[in-house]
Amino acid sequence: MNKKILIQYFLLFLIVLITCIIFYNYFYENNENDITKKSTIDVIENKNLSNLISDLKYITRDAEGNQYEIISDSGEIDAIDQDIIFMKDVKAVIKLIDNEPILIESSFAKYNSKNNNTNFSEDIFIKHINHRINCQFMDLLFENNIANLYGDVVYTNLDKKILADKMEIDLITKNAKIFMYNKFKKVKITGLK
To answer: How many CB atoms lie within 10 A of CB 151?
Structure first.
């Protein structure tokens, strides 16, 4: 074989080898780094887009100075309506002017941050002075100053216990309406003493 052809093969092999090394070092590693960087950016962006919130607390006051405070261990903002927050392990306090506070606890709540209306659900406990109410659902409607309680409503105070299907309380006057869904059933009232 001719020396000249042998040198040409060697140079061609050397060019291919250098090209492969350059490609591997600069383009192949950068592609891996870009993929890693892109994955990291995607994870960070997904965390920022998450609707989960922990340790929530909202406090609002009305024109008369009454205060509504709602606290939750965790919540999730509704993807469709950003004003709606679904909360877990909820505690709320209604502090009325010249009156004792109303304490509310529940497993879940749907809170509207725009109008403060709150739909409590599951294992609801309400306490106001000597009054205690347990129920499964409660709609606190600030626009109408009304609280609707329903689902196995049990009201107790110092001397009586009332079992009903629904209770409606006017938040301003504190007047309550208690009734059953079936007109043939009666509200059950018993004395505790």
So the answer is: 14
